[in-house]
Fold this sequence. Notes:
By secondary structure, the chain is an alpha/beta fold. It is 34% helix and 17% strand.
Amino acid sequence: QQLLQCGVEGFAVATLEEALTLRQLDAQCEILILGYVPFWQAEEVSRHRLTLTLTDWENAARLNEAGYPIRVHVPIDTGMRRLGARAEDLDKLCRFYQFPHLQ
Length: 103
């Protein structure tokens, strides 16, 4: 709550549960979920205007098939080998944008 009062406009969290707790505090702030969220929770993600990190093609396809508009973040590994797709796979990453329900 104090960070919101200081003017913080967005947060990154690990889980959907953390995101929903934050959403209760502020209806407008940007919330990015860094951890995995299964496709069957797409409606809840969309309803609460949360942003998902996409790292798995299959889950992205299933999220899209659920039919709810979902904001997404596509991480790219810049060399630390921790999170994100490899730069060599950029052509595959571009295919995420072919999904009409993922924004």
